[in-house]
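mind reviewing this fold:
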Amino acid sequence: MVRSDARQNRARILEAAREAFTDSGDISMNRIAQRAGVGPGTLYRNFPTREALVLAVYQLEIERLVASASKLLETLPPLEALRHWTTDLVDAMRKKHGLGDALSPGAHQAITEKTYGPVIAAISELIEAGKHDGSIRADADPGDFLQLTGALWRAASGPEDRSQPMLGLILDGLGAQRH
C-alpha cells in the first residue's frame, strides 16, 4: 500500500508537470521537481524518465476528460455537451502532439492504444444520450466521430484556429433530421 505522503508527492509532481508542459515542453526534470516541492530523487522514483512523466500527465488528462462526459450531460443537452467535450478533447490531442518530441513512436502508440477504449466509451455515452433524446442521428458512430475530430487538432494548431467552425460542421452532420 502506498503511503499518503507518497501519493501526495506523486499528485504534486503530476500537477506541476502538467502546468510546466503547458507553459513549455522543454522544461527540465529538476525544474519540475522544484515546482512540485520535491527533491529530484522523489521525482525519479515516481517517474524514472521524462517519457514516463509525460505519459502519466497525458493519461491523467485523458482520465479527467473521460470523467467529464457524464458531468456535462448533467447540465447540458447532449449535442452541446458533445461540443464542449470535443473542444476539450482537441486540446488534449494538441497537447499530446505538442509533447511529441518527448515521446518515442512506441510511446505514442502505447498511449493511443491505452486511451482509445475510454475515449470511445465517453463519446458513446454522449452520442447515445443524443440518440435517446432525438438530437443526434441514429446511425452516428463513435469511432467515425473520433476519426473526424483528428482533423480538428491540426486545424487548431495553424495560424488561424479553424477548429470551432469545423466542429460546427461535424456536429451539424450528427444532428437528427427534423421533419
Summary: Residues 117 and 170 are 21 Å apart (CA to CA).
